[in-house]
Specification:
Elements (H helix, E strand, L loop, with lengths): L1 H9 L3 E5 L8 E5 L6 H6 L4 E6 L8 H7 L3 E3 L6 H14 L3 E4 L20 H5 L3 E11 L2 E2 L11 H10 L3 E7 L14 H16 L9
Parallel strand pairs: 1-8, 2-5, 2-6, 3-4, 3-5
Antiparallel strand pairs: 6-7, 6-8
């Protein structure tokens, strides 16, 4: 957590937080995905184990940092990938840890949301973990922007050069109300949980006439 905060400061990223993250007990943080910064933004609020595509492990430096944070890597080409990852998530929930999930499965410019893959909501249901949506809202010099977004065919090196070589990147990390907390009752189906999470995050991402941190 402290390392992530330091890294964001060293990268010149201004962060603000609204809402309250669940700081104890097993929780699944469900977030939109814009940048390689996202992992560090959430880790700065609470130490979090992330589910990430296996390709990230091969990224220079960032792959090493992400792997060192006990990341659960998903081999998307494997038929048994979801089962293996689900089991690893439940192990973390049994230790009362936080797990971070980007259910879009890829990054976006940050103004909208792609459809959510709801399969990995199931381990939270089985592991009696709370599910808390998080919206990451990116700004550049005080206005909503996709300046830091890592999308399309852009290389990691080019994105790092732009983000770290520029100024004025700020992110508002919005911790929304949990859509489910274990109280002994049965959780809604995973498809409904995915729909609810996407709905509340999307409401925070719709651009408004709002000046953000600068």
């Amino acid at each position: 957590m402290h390392w992530s905060r330091m890294l964001l400061v060293l990268c010149g990223i201004l962060t603000t937080r609204s809402g309250s993250p669940l700081t104890s007990g097993p929780v699944l943080f469900v977030s939109n995905h814009v940048s390689w910064l996202d992992i560090f933004l959430l880790n700065a609020a609470r130490p979090t184990v992330f589910v990430a595509k296996s390709e990230i492990r091969r990224w220079p430096l960032l792959g090493w940092l992400v792997a060192g944070a006990d990341t659960i890597f998903i081999e998307r080409a494997s038929r048994h990938a979801v089962h293996k990852v689900g089991h690893a998530m439940q192990e973390r929930f049994a230790r009362a840890q936080a797990v971070g999930l980007f259910p879009e499965g890829t990054t976006s410019p940050g103004y909208d949301l792609r459809p959510f893959y709801a399969n990995l909501f199931e381990p939270a249901r089985k592991g009696d973990a709370s599910i808390q949506p998080v919206a990451l809202v990116f700004y550049h010099h005080g206005r909503r922007s996709d300046f830091a977004a890592f999308v399309g065919e852009e290389t990691l090196a080019r994105n790092l050069w732009r983000v770290l070589g520029g100024t004025g990147v700020a992110v508002e990390v919005v911790f929304l109300a949990p859509i489910w907390s274990s109280d002994g009752s049965e959780a809604p189906p995973r498809a409904k949980l995915g729909h609810l999470a996407r709905q509340v995050i999307l409401q925070e991402l719709v651009p408004r006439d709002k000046i953000g941190p600068s």
